[in-house]
Each structure stands twice: as C-alpha cells, then as structure tokens.
Design a protein that fits this description.
Elements lengths: L1 H22 L2 H31 L2
Helix pairs in contact: 1-2
Amino acid sequence: MMKGNARTKQLRGKMRETLGKALGDKSMQRTGRGEQLRGKAQEMTEKVAGQIRHRTKH
C-alpha cells in the first residue's frame, strides 16, 4: 500500500511541474520536481526495507 503512496507523490509532482511549465511558474515547477524526488526516495526506501525483511524473514 505504501508503494502506491510513493507513486502518487511522483505523479502529483509531475502534474504540478507540468502545470508550472504551462503557466511559466518556476516555483511550481521546483515544487513539483521536489515532490517527484520525495516520491522516488520513498519508493526506494520501501524497496530496500522489503528486501531486508525478505532476507531476515521478518
């Protein structure tokens, strides 16, 4: 379920970045890129945590 949340952040960030480009709003573009990066970082963290759980059987 958490993975979906990370992907939602990435999608929302991409939408915000695209809207910022369309409107010429640099701040909105930066916010969107940041949200995408947070989503990717969360997804990677969850992936690593899942691998650790799998290897330790927890």
